[in-house]
């Protein structure tokens, strides 16, 4: 369900001011998930509460991000995406990339994708707490590189499962597949979880190593 909105965000669509819509469901079970609070929120009616305002603001904000949770598995996803596209908005997604077919089917309607790569491709099950069909992740990576005008792949460096070696494996994989951009994000502490983020020094070292294989940027810590 659609549960939350940020009307003007500078952070979610690279280089653009956008409106970001958050859906509450997800097909993964990451323990560091920041979106647990979204589930508790009241559902929002897109047609009555959101769309009229988006149209009013369109002269100023024409970029929309569908985020989550995992937006692609939501029952309203297709209808909302179609409505936005038909009304001339530029639509981007934040996704875990597991629903490759949904991405493929909507290729012409999506102008940006930020895809989370949770861990290297041999170590996806533990961090997501799911039995992952890794082909879906590989196929989505290839699909995005070949079809989506603007994209980024990003990994949250959650020290319990993700260390230098894992990020370097991801960077190598992306480099071998000619990806343009990889981002490593600092894990932000979540209430009730004792895992401590890596130091800035360690994050800088990971960044340096990843940059040997693919253009890698940092997010969430000071360089
Ligand atoms: S994929 Fe994202 S939304 Fe889903 S459980 Fe993991 S962190 Fe949360």
Could you walk me through the main structural features you see in this protein, from its secondary elements to its overall organization?
- The protein is an alpha/beta fold.
- It has one domain: TIM Barrel, CATH 3.20.20.
- 34% of the residues lie in helices and 25% in strands.
- It is built from 8 helices and 8 strands; from the N terminus they run ββααβαβαβααβαβαβ.
- It has helices at residues 36-40, 46-57, 77-86, 100-105, 124-128, 134-147, 164-176, 200-210; strands spanning 2-13, 16-23, 63-67, 90-95, 110-116, 150-157, 182-186, 216-219.
- Strands 1-2-3-4-5-6-7-8 form an 8-stranded mixed sheet, with helices on one face.
- α7 (164-176) packs parallel to α8.
- Bound molecules: iron/sulfur cluster.
- Residues 26, 28-30, 33, 35, 68-70, 96, 116 line the site of iron/sulfur cluster (SF4).
Brief characterization of the structure:
The protein has 223 residues and is of the alpha/beta class. It contains eight helices and eight strands, in the order ββααβαβαβααβαβαβ.
